[in-house]
Structures are given as C-alpha cells and as structure tokens.
C-alpha cells in the first residue's frame, strides 16, 4: 500500500515518445475477489518516432507475475520488480501474452480493480491500470480492446466492459462469461470493467443521424427508484452535444454504473462511465436541489468527455486541462443552457455566479499557496495531486476566454477544426490553441501564457473623464501583486486578457460605446477590450456624461479587479447594473468591504457597528420582485468565512466568524418582517419539481429561514423550522429546516428541537447512505459554542456505527466538512482541530493515499494565519510529514513546509 521510495519529480520538459506502441489488447479476467487472474495479450511494435530501446519496460504495481509468452512461446528474459516488468531483447513487432494475479478484495486505494459492496469495479485514471495488468500505462499509448470476463454467475450476474457486447453465455461450475469489444483506440486509463449484482433502467434513443442507441444506468437493486434524473440528464446531454457542437454518440450503447466507494465524482471510461453514487442517485425525499443540479452537471461532464478526452485525449498528464478544463467549460455551458437557453441572460448569470464563487473561493486560494501551478503544470511528484481546481476550474475559464474572444460561432469553428485534425489522437493544449487560432484567423501566441503562468493576475483600473471633450479613458494595468512564488517564477510577460466593460449613466442605463477611432457607436453596450500590454489605455468618445464603469462583465477573465469604488457607487451598481453578474459582484464587494472592516475590529476587541446603508442595500434586493428568486438568494448570501479570511493580511477565522455572525444577526433583526414574508411567499406547495424556477423559490425561502435563525428571540424561527421539517416532502426543505434548528440552538442555547430533528432524520434515513452523509455533514459544519465545541461532536461521531473511514463519501461528509467547511471551529486556538486533522491524514494515508492527500491540503495556506494558529498548523504538518509514507501526502506536506 505505502510507497516509501524517494519521490521522483516528473517534468514536462523531459517528455519523450514511448519506445514501443501497443495496437491491440485482448484481456481475459477470471474474477475472484482475493485472487483475480488476468491474461493480457497485446500486439506490440517499436515506435518509429522514438529512439531504439533494448528493453521493453512495462508498468505494474501490486501484481503477482505468473508467465510471459512472445508469439505463443514461453519467454524467459523477464525481470519482475516492484514497479513493473523488464523484457530483454524483444523483436520489433510481436504478440506478447502476460499472465498475472491481483487481489481486488484488499485494494482499499480504490485505484485499479477493487471490490465494493461485493461487486467488482475499476478506476484507472490516472495510473490505476498498472494495478490490473502490466502495461505501457501512459495516455499516448492507444489501442483497441477486446475484453472477456468470467465469474460466478450467482454472485456476479452482470458483466460489463467498454464498448459493445459481442457475446455472453454459461460456463461449467456455475460460471458465465461476457465478451466486449471497444472499436475505438483508447489509452489504458479509459479501460473499465464492472461485475456484480446490479439492475438497470434502460432507454433507447435515436441519434441525430437516425441510429438507435441503448442507454443504461446500472445500480444496486434497492436504488433503482433513484435513477430517473440521471437518465434524463444523460438524454439531455446527448441532445445538447449534437445541437451545440454537432457531436453524436459513437457507440451502440452508453452505460453509467453507480458505486458507493469511489475516490472522485465520476470517471469517463469509454462507453462505461463509473460514478460515485452521489452523482447518480436522486429522488425528492433523498436529494436536494443542489444534488439534482450536480447530477445533471456531472452526468453531462462525463458524457461530454466522450469527445473531449476520449476521442481526442491527452498526450501526457501535463496536458490534463486539455480534457478537463475544456469539458468543465462544456458542462457549465450545458447547465446554463438547460437553465436559461441561449437567451435568458438572468438564468444563465445565476449559473455563472455559482461557478465563479467556486473559482474565487477555492482556485484563487490555490493560486496563493504552495501548490500553485499553471493550468499546464511543469512538474509533479504524484499525478493524483494535480487533479486540482487550477486544472479544472481555471482551465475552464481559459477555454471560456476563447469563446469570449471569438463568440459562440467562432468557438464552434475552432472545435470543428480541432476534431477534424485530431480525432483518434493524443495531443497537447497547444494543439487545441492552434485549432482555435487557425479557425478564426488569429495569432494566439500570447494566449499560451495562460497555460504556463501560475497565479491569479490582478488588473488595476484607472479612469478619467474629460467633460469638455466628452472622452472617457480607462487605463488597465496587469500584474500579480504579492503573488505566490510559483507566480513570480513563471511570469513570461503580459497576458491577453479579454476585459468586458460597460459604462452606466446617472439614471442607471447603459451608455453607447464608441472607442476612439471608430466611426460610430456599437449596438452592444458591453465591449470586450483585448488587453495585451502591461499597461494599456482605452478611450471612449462621445460620452455625454461622466459614467460609472461596470468592469469585467460576466467575469470575462479569471483575474482580480482593483478599482476604488465608493460604497455609494457599489450600492448604485447593485441597484442598476445591466449585467447580472456585475450586479451580484457589486453586492459582494460591498459586503466584503464591510465584513473585513468589522473583522479587523473584532480582532482587536472594538465594538461592532453596521452602517445603515448596507442594511438598506440588502433590503432593496430582498424586496425587489423584478429579480428572480435564484438571483436574490445569491445576492443576499454573504461571502464565505474562508474567502473573507483569505482577504485579510493575516487570516483570523475567529474574527471573521464574529464579524459575519454580527452582520447576519443585524440583517435578521432589521429585516425580520421581510424575511418572514419571503418564507411565506416562496413556499412551493404540491409535488416536488427539480426545475430551476422551483429551486430558486426554495433557495430564497431557505436563505430567509437561515437568517431568521439569528434572531434575538428564536421562538418564531424554531416554530417555522420545526413545522417545515415535519411537513417537508423533499430533502431540500428538510435539510434546510434542520440546519436552521441547529443554527438557532447554537445562537441561543437549548436545542431540544434540533436534537429531536437530528434523531428523527437518522431514523428516517438510516438505510440511505447518501442521506446519512448529509446527517454527518450538517453536524460537522454546525456553528458550535464554547460550551459545545464541534470538535467534540465530530470525535463522538467518528465512533458512530454508521461511520466508516474506508468509504470516501463518509470520510468527506464528516472529516472534510469539519476541516474545510467549518473554519471558526477547525481553527480553534487550542489546536484541537489541527491534532484531529493530523490523526485523520495519517490514518487515511495507510488506507487510501488519494483521499488522504486531499485532506492534507486543508493546511497548505498555514503561513497566512495569525502567529498562534501558524505554530499549531506547522506542528501538525511536521507530525504528518514524519509519519506518512505515500507519495501523494508527502508531496503536499513537504511543499507546504518548504
């Protein structure tokens, strides 16, 4: 399990093509949990584009070597070692047959072939295939696969693999077999098999060209009633990809399989997607609106990989964002189109706001820490550590900038050329950039820097209005400020930044935009400026009045904008900006500014006061019926404590928590009647619907309930929340009511109603693992108090019969929720949270290094905290560094301490 070898740094500059290529693979599996025999027959040839090698080196881990044959004859020049096989003096072109054994029952890493709930599953990305058989386990070795599965029929009645089913039948001794063929060349990381007691919901659909396709969602029998939404999401994804990008499903069937033990969200194996149950199973009683939305997005994401990742894949793992950043962009556009189509900008903006919130809270923090790296990293020790927010979310923003520059039609032209050139190939981020450039007749050499520079760019804005000449000048300057060392080290010059801007007049309307040198004003009141220099001035002419700039509309680039708006100007933008994203952004800036001022006072013990103008700004949004409920919910949600702490010169979670709770309580009491009215007006009676409109009403109502939980007199809130909990016909309302009861108990003491609801929640759903995950998470993120610190609750829950550290979902629900989503309690000055973190990282490292490494990142920004907290975090990091053995965790903690 543990890898104690000295970590080797893998560098992008050292890439060399493989010395050998594998054209075909025929795999035979005799599936037995403790001893699975794998026979692997490959057609191998020397790569004419690589230097000559005297040995064929194959990767292999946790395997028992049995035999080797070349062209049907035993081959003795084989050396098996801990990390693979060496075969000496092999021919130039030959058939290689290897037999080996693995032990899926003992594979707690959940990488390779493993057993979960009595069923067999695989996870091969990034380097799991080498745990199944010896192979050239790298993405630029692409082959066609035929797979034969044999197993006990009673225990494993369903046998699945990639592609199309060729034949199946019975064998002696109660066994049976199935043979699958994937006609498309693929890298080994896209291989998959599943065997077990599963059932499927099926649909047959016709592709745009009229071909019939079989769609299946496979789950354990008791979960069949929770598959409809996943199937609908798959059908919608197929239709959307045909309409938006002209991409059809290329196989006769497409399968999704749900498994409860899974390290990630899902995996796009060709034709056989394996999913964490969290992103498949949903019905109104067990899944929230957020769950329904996430399932739609993740099903879409993995399906879209069929072309952006599978048909065209990565040459090497440094190009990971080639598939992941592009496919995140595609799933974001899919979700936006499902919510608002191409024309409902308010609905699309809601999705955009949600995506940017995640980027700024998580990826911007990553950019500022020791794990900062470019979208296309230059080196790594353990590739699993580079499935990061930078590769995925910032990578998506880089792709979005192409669409911002070229428009939807220009972006589609680039995508068409990309597939025309590279279908069936393993390529690079540069190949994608060249396709977009060539299709649109543009030189994008400067745009490459977005792939090679780490850190979050900062754009400083200065404006000047000449009333006599009616000229308005906007000067943009780009840099990185006090960036992390990774940003300083990778800077290669200014970026090409598409900077969207609008100008707003005194009455709140957009002004016409005409740049100096243009014959007339544009019809569009949002202009995308191509900002390419370190400092650049853009001058608008015929500006009849001094405007207020609306900057970086729709968040047109992943940058931090520095402009000194006054509080009154932000309030004006919040009320009038025509760009929905910037309207939300103005409110967030206003709230952030006020909260940081209050946090600084709280840190020094100064009494807190909230300006009435802030309350008035919130009241205008809360009562503005012209705004959609979904937008109002986002606009009225305060910035997170973690995000606020990162904006301080020294992060002080306790001070941030005090400031944020003060503002929530002030808004709750000052706007009590409005909050109560919202709760009443935005109920969704009748049968549950997971539509964007209904979800928006529930979101606003439940936000109001969460504010009411802060009231000085909690009786009315407790009554409302308890009534909502008891009457709820959906998990969204039930979980929100339980959360409000927990908050009210923490704010006002007592808590009998909260405990009653907690106990009822567990009894009601104890046979629904995903719902019990919510039960653990709600308790891990609750506010707590001096009399009842949450660490005590979490430690008690660790001993609960339903807790299982080996299950990643359960570990994330309790441990990760506490460490990553409850900063005020986790960062307690007594260091109890850090001691708990160290214990759990060390325990997980021995079981599942990938999950342990993700938990290890909770302390990577330790140097930015107050001295007392820094000391406690450093001690915890040093304890972990001295005891863990995996490459995964060592890379994280050593970079943090370096």
UniProtKB/TrEMBL annotation:
Residues 38-190 form the Aminopeptidase N-like N-terminal domain. GO terms for molecular function: alanyl aminopeptidase activity; metallopeptidase activity; zinc ion binding. Pfam families: DUF3458 (PF11940), DUF3458_C (PF17432), Peptidase_M1 (PF01433), Peptidase_M1_N (PF17900). Its cofactor is Zn(2+). Residues 568-898 form the Peptidase M1 alanyl aminopeptidase C-terminal domain. Its EC number is 3.4.11.2. InterPro entries: Aminopeptidase_N-like_N, Aminopeptidase_N-like_N_sf, PepN_Ig-like_sf, Peptidase_M1, Peptidase_M1_dom, Peptidase_M1_pepN, Peptidase_M1_pepN_C, Peptidase_M1_pepN_C_sf. It catalyses: Release of an N-terminal amino acid, Xaa-|-Yaa- from a peptide, amide or arylamide. Xaa is preferably Ala, but may be most amino acids including Pro (slow action). When a terminal hydrophobic residue is followed by a prolyl residue, the two may be released as an intact Xaa-Pro dipeptide. It is an enzyme of class 3 (hydrolase). Residues 455-564 form the Peptidase M1 alanyl aminopeptidase Ig-like fold domain. It comes from the Bacteria. Aminopeptidase N is involved in the degradation of intracellular peptides generated by protein breakdown during normal growth as well as in response to nutrient starvation. Belongs to the peptidase M1 family. This is Aminopeptidase N. It comes from Paraburkholderia bryophila.
